From TrEMBL:
Its EC number is 1.20.4.2, 1.8.5.1, 2.5.1.18. One of its GO terms (molecular function) is methylarsonate reductase activity. The keyword Transferase applies. This is Glutathione S-transferase omega. Exhibits glutathione-dependent thiol transferase activity. Has high dehydroascorbate reductase activity and may contribute to the recycling of ascorbic acid. Participates in the biotransformation of inorganic arsenic and reduces monomethylarsonic acid (MMA). Residues 18-96 form the GST N-terminal domain. One of its GO terms (cellular component) is cytoplasm. Keywords: Oxidoreductase, Transferase. InterPro entries: Glutathione-S-Trfase_C-like, Glutathione-S-Trfase_C_sf, Glutathione_S-Trfase, Glutathione_S-Trfase_N, GST_C, GST_omega, GST_Omega/HSP26, Thioredoxin-like_sf. Residues 101-241 form the GST C-terminal domain. It catalyses: RX + glutathione = an S-substituted glutathione + a halide anion + H(+); L-dehydroascorbate + 2 glutathione = glutathione disulfide + L-ascorbate; methylarsonate + 2 glutathione + H(+) = methylarsonous acid + glutathione disulfide + H2O. One of its GO terms (biological process) is glutathione metabolic process. Pfam families: GST_C (PF00043), GST_N_3 (PF13417).
Length: 246
């Protein structure tokens, strides 16, 4: 199947009985969460990439919100990143990602709810053309990274939030952490860079994450994210960037 994005007017690619399908956008951090779980647990699947500015009618029929990720297998459809990750962990239950301990599982939920405090200033800074506003939002990001630094350090069984191996939360956080280094490049301002020496535990976590085959398989480097976001900010995102002709 093509990696090129399916757009409005395209024909629906027929499904196959019993084959798990992910509806995806290659640069979407929310869809990357689902891809990370699929890759980590080595779940067989196929991928259909969606042009999010010109969505196919058949995709909107599957998910009227028009958002990725969406999972489909036979007559089952599961949208939304956290729902897809949890569903995959429940259905493909080998090598569990969700903590067995109820207290730890509850705190992972707290950590996930806090991600919005990173996402909001980050994308605010990405979209802003005001240098002082960008620097202010960068300081917010650094403050909230300290929260994760302290929580991860307190667990004392790292390098992951899941301990010696990643948990679901590691994969929920990673796509946004992966994109943070693009901000100083996008704005040409080194002041915005992550101060690794102030978050040594998170820095070690990031190093361990980057070595996971699932992360290697789903990630782009900072310069690639910058290239894509420049197109996105101009109103002409190239959903097929870096793909060779089929």
């Amino acid at each position: 199947m093509t990696q090129k994005s399916f757009a409005q007017g395209s024909a629906f690619p027929p499904t196959k009985p019993g084959v798990l399908r992910l509806y995806n956008m290659r640069f979407c951090p929310f869809a990357q969460r689902t891809r990370l779980v699929l890759e980590y647990k080595k779940i067989p699947h196929e991928v259909v990439n969606i042009h999010l500015k010109s969505k196919p009618e058949w995709f909107l029929a599957l998910n009227p919100l028009g958002q990725v990720p969406v999972l489909q297998i036979d007559d089952k459809i599961v949208p939304e990143s956290t729902a897809t990750c949890d569903w995959l962990d429940d259905v493909y239950s080998e090598n569990r990602l969700q903590p067995a301990d109820p207290y730890r599982r509850a705190w992972d939920r707290v950590l996930h709810e806090y991600i919005g405090k990173l996402i909001t200033p980050f994308y605010g800074a990405v979209r802003s053309s005001d240098a002082s506003e960008v620097e202010s939002k960068s300081e917010e990001i650094k403050k909230h990274l300290q929260f994760y630094e302290e929580k991860l350090k307190a667990r004392e069984d790292g390098p992951f939030f899941g301990g010696s191996k990643p948990s679901t939360f590691d994969f929920l956080l990673w796509p946004f952490y992966e994109r943070l280094p693009m901000l100083p490049l996008l704005k040409d301002n080194p002041v915005l860079d992550i101060e690794a020496d102030k978050i040594p535990t998170l820095t070690a976590w990031a190093k361990a994450m980057r070595e996971l085959p699932a992360v290697i398989a789903t990630s782009f480097d900072a310069s690639s994210h910058v290239a894509w976001y420049k197109g996105h900010l101009s109103g002409a995102p190239d959903y097929d960037m870096f793909l060779k002709e089929d």
